[in-house]
């Protein structure tokens, strides 16, 4: 019925794949609708995930978003702590500070926030705000993946492909890509299509490769289109 809080929460479900297939385009559309109806929380989700929204945003709107999330973070809400981390990571309304971002991610990750575990894993993988540590990155990805975080499943799969922090294992990578792709993760669909096309970790199957790559293209993955053009 257009309730902004309900629209915002549905957007979160679609973005993270909580009980539904991942659909980040629809998630952003719902957040925009909720934001237009006065949801500061929805505006916050857009600010952290959509540069097209963030760039022209009124500074007063950004400050209102940060105030709302700081209040929640002060009460130890993990999702708010994660958002504050993202604010420092991308310089949303604050001076960019990767170390401070990692500190906030850690607070949220310690509470079991899968999104924060995954984001902190990226920090450790790339040495952003923390000392580079592939083992720690894999541990965090695994925590998030075991909680069903689709993006973390994909990221962990790539670690197995590259042998980063774990022994190289193409079959395990395919298993993880499959879990992530089944939740609708665009890049996992692309990665899975590549595996089927080349026979990495799975029996070569061009029909399945085309199927997964086509799904990825339908969600806007340009590299998937270039790979499809090779058939």
Secondary structure elements and pairings:
Layout: H1 4-16, H2 24-36, H3 40-49, H4 51-54, H5 59-74, H6 78-90, H7 98-110, H8 114-126, H9 134-146, H10 150-162, H11 170-182, H12 186-198, H13 206-218, H14 222-228
In short:
The chain has 231 residues and is mainly alpha-helical.
Structure in words:
There is one protein chain. The protein contains 14 helices and no strands. It has about 230 residues and is mainly α. The protein is globular, with a radius of gyration of 18 Å. The model has no long low-confidence stretch (mean pLDDT about 90).
The percent range for strand residues is under 5%
Summarize the amount of helix as a percent range.
over 70%
Pick out the low-confidence regions.
none
**Care to count the β-strands?**
0
Q: Biggest β-sheet: count, sense, barrel?
A: none
Shape: globular
What would the average pLDDT be, to the nearest integer? Answer: 90
- Measure the end-to-end span: 45 Å
Q: Please work out how many helical segments DSSP would assign.
A: 14
Rg, Å, rounded: 18 Å
Could you state the order of secondary-structure elements as H and E?
Answer: HHHHHHHHHHHHHH
Structural class, please?
A: mainly alpha
Features of the shown structure:
single chain, 72% helix, globular, 14 helices, mainly alpha
């Amino acid at each position: 019925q257009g309730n902004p809080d309900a629209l915002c929460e549905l957007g979160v479900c679609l973005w993270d794949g909580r009980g539904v297939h991942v659909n980040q385009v629809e998630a952003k559309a719902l957040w925009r609708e909720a934001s237009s109806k006065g949801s500061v929380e929805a505006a916050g989700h857009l600010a952290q995930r959509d540069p097209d929204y963030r760039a022209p945003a009124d500074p007063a709107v950004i400050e209102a978003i940060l105030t709302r999330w700081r209040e929640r973070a002060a009460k130890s809400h993990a999702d708010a702590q994660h958002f504050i981390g993202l604010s420092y990571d991308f310089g949303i309304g604050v001076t960019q500070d990767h170390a401070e971002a990692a500190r906030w991610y850690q607070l949220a990750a310690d509470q079991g926030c899968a999104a924060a575990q995954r984001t902190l894993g990226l920090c450790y993988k790339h040495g952003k705000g923390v000392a580079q540590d592939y083992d720690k990155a894999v541990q965090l990805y695994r925590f998030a993946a075991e909680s069903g975080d689709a993006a973390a499943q994909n990221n962990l799969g790539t670690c197995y492909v590259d042998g980063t922090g774990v022994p190289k294992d193409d079959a395990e990578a395919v298993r993880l890509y499959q879990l992530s792709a089944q939740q609708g993760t665009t890049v996992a669909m692309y990665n899975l299509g590549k595996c089927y096309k080349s026979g990495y970790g799975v029996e070569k199957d061009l029909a399945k490769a085309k199927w997964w790559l086509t799904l990825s293209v339908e969600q806007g993955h340009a590299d998937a289109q270039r790979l499809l053009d090779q058939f």
